[in-house]
Amino acid sequence: MFLGATGAAAVTTSLAGCLGGISGDDDDVFRIGHLGPTEMEMGRGAARSAELAVDELNDNGGVLGRDVELLSEDTGGEPTEGERVAENLVQQDNVDLLVGTFVSEVTQGIIDFVAEVDVPFLITGSADPDTITQNHGEDYDHYKNIFRTGPINSDLQAEGMADYAAHLNDEYGWDNFSILADDAAWTTSFRDILPEQIEATEGLSVVHEDRMSVETDNFTSFLDDADDADADVVFRFIAHGGAAGFTSTWAQNEYPFALEGVSVPGMSPEFWDATEGACLYETTSQSGAGGVAPLTDRTMDFVDAYEAEFEDEGPPSKPMYMGFNSYDAVLFYAEAAANADTVDYESDLDAIIDAMLDLEFTGAAGEMSLYGPDEEYPHDVRETRTADGVISNFPVTQWQEDGDDGVVECVYPREDATADHVEPEWL
Amino acid sequence: MISQLLSILVLGAMISAVYALIAIGFTMIFGVGGVLNLAHGALIMIGAFAYLGLTSSAGALSLPPVVGFVLAVAITAGASYVLYAGLVTYIEDNIVITFLATVVVALLLTELIIIQFGAEPSQLIPVVPGSIYLEAVGTRIRYVELVAFIVSWIAIGLLWYYVTKTDEGRSILATSMSTRGAELTGVDLGTVKSRTWLIAGAFAGIAGVFIGTLQSTTPEMWLNPLALAFIIVVIGGIGSIKGSVVAAYLIGYLETASIEILGPSFQGVLSLIVLAAVLLVLPHGLYGRELVHE
């Protein structure tokens, strides 16, 4: 009880301090705080990509004539650490913009604080729809400084995944699907919505569903169960390191189904080496398509710039999905600020918000625009669709063979594909 | 149901053999020197990462898996010896300091491995690739699991022969029964301890390569085997090789059965319940004897 009271008092004091003390616009530097788990490849790729965007802005005269400075902080993927570094960025460093957060729980952990201090915050990693629906949906004015410029939220991702299931059925006649999801916040949509959406297509059924503890590194029983249920495809949604074990268990045992879905470790350009090639034939959906397909005019320039700049600095050798989104977010905001002709969020927040909501922007990961205040996902990035109405900004990439080595190819949607989807040779 | 039981029987036998290797090394070091080696898990990790460094196709050497396996075992045995001769031998009389020092070694190794290999898990090239599908059992067994089973049992058999049939080996057994008695009959304690650490290290190396292949190779992979070694050794009776083998099979089967029947989240729960029960009912374990106080 005593500790609780002290904690509350501390929070109140710090809030009071910051509300009086913020002065984001009192000098000629535009400061961006980037948040991500930089001990992971995903976070490192994102921080580097934000750096590239900042360099690009500075080369072109900065933001409204101000120099741009990037402050990158490591959240460690932990909500408590995320709160600490976010508070520091806002209160000590007076950042004018926050970008990032990968783990949904970290995003949710800092969101009330960020809403309180009004600093514009562009989410670029976590895809949990609740972040938007349960905040903006409930109290729009309080959370209006918060946006997600990518990836599309996981409700929309689930819809894209169901489109993809229908596509696989067209190609191969596969009709039995299994869904294996991490027991974590980010997979909620895939567990709740995806089965129904897959089965909405005539003839497709979900024959097996299970959730996997994030501590698990033994996947034999899950894969045996999917096999017993006669699954043709396993959609697995896995974000922790065990993914490599999952992949090798599947590949070495040549389980008779394809491995699709979302694997965050599988997005690493280094995953081929990490799994000794066991990831051959597995796919993952990821915004940016792994940097292998020219999604827009900007994509390959960005990837080339990333590779040139960070060639010698260790993995990841490509930006990875959060890199695309963090890069796009910085440039998106800069353009919106230019249109609004202000970065002073304390006095002109509404003007900045209007400029962002009006903006149609070509990013490296795709065409970007935001849902309006009265729509289903206020301030969330809109999905883009192909001529057939299929969601296109959540492309699917596959590990394919390239001599003795592996290569990532974009295999879906067709409009952006760099290669055809290949089924495992043992099927 | 039948297929589930068969699958537990087969998968349990495989993993338990590796667990036995881990526990035997841990229990021997305790039996002979009275040292609780909390870096034992770290030795397992050294085995896995040595194998990774030697055989990884992205690495500089890319040795054939079998050669890599032998070298990884040798490296782990060497590391174990260095740990003893370079550190433990100076502090082993003080249990608390040894306890702390070996934890520090484990944590230090974790950091070194993160610096060298990164924190992301790696997969090892299987010593033998491929698998067989046991249709009647409804599961698949990787050849590497079979190899792990066979190699572990060969190692255990050789150790059994060594400690019961050869003088050198019997001196290890004698020391674990009574240090003073062994000394009085002319056993050189230093040599016996060095040999024990070498053997424990080699066993940890073998286990490391297989655990690293079957599960995953990460800088945190030492924790789980260490906890397992603890549980198995307490259940089997501290210092008893036979007890370690029996308890390893008990725990291995319990884990496999929990995974098959209750799901992977329950993997360790039953083992802990059994551990608690054994501590209450049989504090000296299945084959333990009261420690000789001198």
From TrEMBL, chain A:
It holds the Pfam family Peripla_BP_6. The keyword Signal applies. Gene3D superfamilies: 3.40.50.2300. CDD domains: PBP1_ABC_ligand_binding-like (cd06345). Keywords: Receptor, Signal. InterPro entries: BCAA_transport, Leu-bd, Peripla_BP_I. Residues 36-382 form the Leucine-binding protein domain. This is Extracellular ligand-binding receptor. It comes from Natronorubrum sulfidifaciens JCM 14089.
